[in-house]
Amino acid sequence: MTDTILTFNAGSSTVKLGTHAIAGNRSRPLARAVIDFRDDPLEVRLTRDGQLLTHPLAGVDIGDMTAILGTALDWIGTQVDLSALAVIGHRVVHGGDLFAGPAIIDDTTLAQMESLSRLAPLHQPQSLRLIRAARALYPDLTQTTSFDTAFHATHDPLARRLAIPRALHDQGIRRYGFHGLSYRHIADALSRTDLPADARVVAAHLGSGASLCAMQGGISRDSSMGFSTLDGIPMATRCGALDPGVLLHLLGPMGWTLDRVERMLYHESGLLGVSGIDADSRELLDSDRPEAAEAIGLFCLRIAGEAARLATTMGGIDALVFTAGIGEHQPRIRAMVAERLAWLGLVLDHAANAVNAARISSTASRIAAFVIPADEERIIAEEALGLLGSHTIL
Fold first, then answer.
1. Disulfide check for 206: which of 70, 115, 293, 327 has CB 3.0–4.6 Å away?
2. CA-to-CA distance for 333 and 326, rounded, in angstroms?
3. What would the DSSP string read from start to end of 21-66?
4. Catalytic residues
5. Cβ-Cβ contacts under 8 Å for 304 (sequence gap 6 or more)
6. Residues 6 or more apart in contact with residue 221 via CB below 8 angstroms
7. φ and ψ at 240, to 5 degrees?
8. Run of H or E including 108
9. In this predicted model, what pLDDT tens digit does every residue of 89-131 receive, in sequence order?
């Protein structure tokens, strides 16, 4: 077997690339890169050995994913050896009920993923563009896909149901859950702590997209996100849970079009919508405007409320985990969430929290609290390699 894995993690507006070296049954990350399509001019940013390098993608047609990816990989290949690729692994948001685990990409699985685009219109098309581009660039290389929904396939049927007519449920309108690759990484990381094997854990993936997951014994039991990536807690620009009567009001008496409503739900709500200032929680925390404080306060209130609901699903909670950009790097938000969960016995060690320590709960706390860096790329690599053989990513 050749000795490098290339991973792609497609978001709605970014593509993260990871390279992983394989040596026997071990592997280690080599470098990570990101292309942010909101950048002007467009560029690729590579991090290797703590050093950040950038390369412009000037002159490349932003609508041509194959050209963008090819140009970026040509440059990345001058920094990291890509001559010995074993497999390429992709993250895809929605696997529906068609995929309960990773899959090798072929024409059949690609068509199945395409059929699920209607369930994740913000993310799925971008992932599929990336997969097609990678297949065009590496037509003879095995490529695999890892699904954000697959980790949540273990939900109890009641947790997956919406209170709608059964015929609609049978058509696939049900709760799926997302950010599953992040949560699988959290489950793996917690297995190396002193928590009991059957610990009841609520994990909070707090980034531009945000959700919470209830895990017991490393198995997903419930999630804040449901049918779509809009559900649950407020996010950077997404609304989170919303009374459907609001949508009826907008589409009816207010005369909004479906496109206008979709734009509002995905791109104009959340922290941006409430504050009217910015979608970035860092900017809002630094602002002295009351609208900024209100947005952050609502964000933390909903996180705490959802954590309590998920604890109900499991009949209790033994640990709370923060992950992703906000969860890993913003002590004030963690402290505000913890303050609202004090009634459950959660007490933070404020000194540990201030420096983003791995364990941030006080010795007096009845609930353990952790900060665990997200590493979806590691899971993509692990699953890709697992489809090829028995090697293990460490």
1. 327
2. 8
3. EEETTEEEEEEEEEEETT-SS-EEEEEETTEEEEEE-TTS-TT-HH
4. 148
5. 337, 340, 341
6. 154, 155, 156, 159, 214, 215, 310, 313, 314
7. 75, -165
8. helix 107-115
9. 999 989 988 998 999 999 999 999 998 888 887 788 888 989 9
pTM: predicted TM-score of the whole model, two decimal places: 0.91
CB 149 within 8 A of CB 94: yes
Residue 29 binned pLDDT confidence (cut-offs 50, 70, 90): confident
Reading the block at residue 24, the tokens are: 């026997």
Scan for tokens 């697959």, then name that residue: 150
Q: Which tokens go with 287?
A: 């602002």
User: For position 320, what pLDDT does the model report?
Assistant: 98
3-state secondary structure 206-221: ECCCEEEEEEECCEEE
- As a whole number of angstroms, the distance between CA 383 and CA 70 comes to 24
What type of residue sits at position 19?
Answer: T
Name the DSSP class of 2.
-
> For residue 42, is pLDDT > 90?
no
**Pairing of β 319-323 and β 103-104:** unpaired
Strands 26-36 and 368-371 turn out to be unpaired
| DSSP states of 133-151 | HHHHHSTTS-EEEEETTGG
Q: Residue 366: which residues within 8 A CB-CB, separation 6 or more?
A: 344, 345, 346, 347
